[in-house]
From TrEMBL:
Domain (HTH gntR-type): residue spans on this chain: 8-74
Listed NCBIfam families: C_P_lyase_phnF
Protein's name in the database: Transcriptional regulator, GntR family
Residues annotated as signal peptide: none
Cited PANTHER family: MANNOSYL-D-GLYCERATE TRANSPORT/METABOLISM SYSTEM REPRESSOR MNGR-RELATED, TRANSCRIPTIONAL REGULATOR PHNF-RELATED
GO molecular function: DNA binding; DNA-binding transcription factor activity
Keywords carried by this UniProt record: DNA-binding, Transcription, Transcription regulation
Amino acid sequence: MHLSRQPQPRYLQLAAQLREELRHLQPGDQLPGEVQLATRFAVNRHTLRRAIDELVSEGRVLRQQGRSTRVLARPLIYPLAAGSAYSESLSAQGHGVQARLLQRQLRSATPEEADHLKLGEGATLLELHTLRLLDQQPVSLIRHRFCASRQVLLEDYNGGSLRQYLAERQLPLHRAFSLIGARLPTSDEADQLLMPRHAPLLTVLTLSHDLAGRPVELSLSTSRADRFQYQVAT
């Protein structure tokens, strides 16, 4: 018995056509409006939306309510090695990297944080919140936790590479361990990272030591999963 091949649904055919056209567009470019695309491909808007939904789920485009659909950059490879640093690694790949300081606060450490940083119960932490942008597009939110005794050392930090800032002050750090996870963003995270609520975030909890092996920084990064692939050194 010969099985005839079933024709591919029209929305998947259209998604393939649009996927090919994205190769000729740049990150940040906007797609034409739904009415214009539906007319061009002679389909109804429901079929067009299903096709674009495929591209959204693949992380190729971003649809924002009330705005045009934008082209996203393909995932970047970030090496997770002992000496790797966010800004330096991605700058070396030719990307414009920015780090904006969003907030600075003192708070009590959780038991887990105190254990990682070898602090006493109820110790005070200095926490810095930064937003990382690649080629002017927001991609990561990072919470950097330090013992409050580092407050004077960090009082002049207002943005840029935190690793470089510390190294220039004779406190170079290296990664002791990283724990990778995934979850959905909160509404605030989705707004700050310009991403849909149903798309996943990659989370990386990293403990960094000084050259003597003492714990200095516990950071938690939340990054758009459509923008990053983490490469683990062996």
